Amino acid sequence: MKIGADINIFVIILLALIILIGKTAVQGQKNFKLFYRVIVFFILTLTAGSFYYFTEGATLKGFVLFSHFMMIAFHVFGAISAYSWFIFVLHETEDNLHCNPSLKNFYILPLIFQCTLLISCGIFYYDEKNQYLQGYLCIFQYLLIFGYLFAGASISFIKYIKEKRYAQQKNCFFLCLFSLLPLLGMGIDVVFPNLNSILPFLVISIVMQYLNLMKKEIFQDPLTKLNNRREFQRHLVTVTKTIRKEDVFLIFFDINDFKSINDTFGHVEGDRALVMIAQILNAAFSNTKAFIARYGGDEFAVILKKEEPEILSYLKKVDASLVTLSASLPYNISLSVGYSVYGEENANTIESLIQSADKKMYWNKEEQKKTICENESMASFHSIP
């Protein structure tokens, strides 16, 4: 067996196992579907390349035609793999370009152009001995793949610079890194053509991105897409070690009368309320480096640096958004809030920091209940003839 085909088969088995294990663990999520599409087309690329290795130099007419077809498939599937990666990056970075139908048609134009070049034999051709030779337009094949990967890296990097939310910023960083690794492999191949280093760099990028996606599944709340309690605890430990502890500011939120929403309108509506609260918190703290998590049930947590300017203004944004949201719902939705600062009011440990914020939140909840009862009593008093 030829070395190239041997390596390809090993990589194909590895990637097939990733899809098999991943689909068993995670089902139906769009980001995984888009990522699996990248892997599938990459597997098809390697498969076509492997078949070509077996038929290279064959003289029988049937094998010659099959060899030509496999080389065309190799180029087409390779380009589609790069295109699929670009679409995956757009989705993961939540880029508005991904939502524009007209632009989606524009993204596929380079693929159509490449197919035209393949038909014209400008990218590659065969000599009289059935040996593969690069054509005078082969540079366009490299530019096509390079373009998709570089565009993905650029979008990820721009989002990384602009994004302030911790989790999204980290995700953009890895997307940029994993887009650049194959480009590094392509660059090495240009300088050292015999190394064939692009394949290991591609495999490293795919495997690392798969691990990154699975890590997100472990530390992300599946309903709200916020960080879950496990990631909250891990981040709180990390942040108290890396910055001055006195700068850690913790806010707890709890949905008032959430049980009545579930009981009256059903659990589906209750889940929708949780998602809407998550969106409100993301929007309110979008210009900060806040770490937002679903702490459990109907509780949410936000970790901020104490010097973050105008923290109260962000809470006012939350209140304003809740008022607007409640006006469009058949029920009123509001939050109880409690906060604590590391080192203040005996909050000298992570446990006491959480307890202090939690205690203040429930105190705020009781105060809101008293206010509602007083208002109802006054309304009843005024209604007495």
From TrEMBL:
Show the InterPro entries listed in the entry.
Diguanylate_Cyclase, GGDEF_dom, Nucleotide_cyclase, Rev_trsase/Diguanyl_cyclase
Q: Where are the transmembrane segments?
A: 6-22, 34-54, 66-86, 106-126, 132-151, 172-192
Keyword annotations: Membrane, Nucleotidyltransferase, Transferase, Transmembrane, Transmembrane helix
SUPFAM superfamilies found in the cross-reference section: Nucleotide cyclase
Q: Does the keyword RNA-binding apply?
A: no
Task: Look up the EC number in the record and give it.
Answer: 2.7.7.65
Protein's name according to its UniProt entry: Diguanylate cyclase (GGDEF) domain-containing protein
Q: Which PANTHER family does this entry report, sorted A to Z?
A: DIGUANYLATE CYCLASE DGCN (PTHR45138:SF6), REGULATORY COMPONENTS OF SENSORY TRANSDUCTION SYSTEM (PTHR45138)
Q: Which Gene3D superfamilies match?
A: 3.30.70.270
Domain GGDEF intervals:
246-377
Question: Which species does this protein come from?
Answer: Anaerotignum propionicum DSM 1682
Q: Which Pfam families match?
A: GGDEF
**GO terms of molecular function:** diguanylate cyclase activity
- The gene designation is yfiN_2
Q: Which GO terms describe its cellular component?
A: plasma membrane
Q: Which SMART domains match?
A: GGDEF
Q: What does the entry give for GO biological process?
A: cell adhesion involved in single-species biofilm formation; negative regulation of bacterial-type flagellum-dependent cell motility
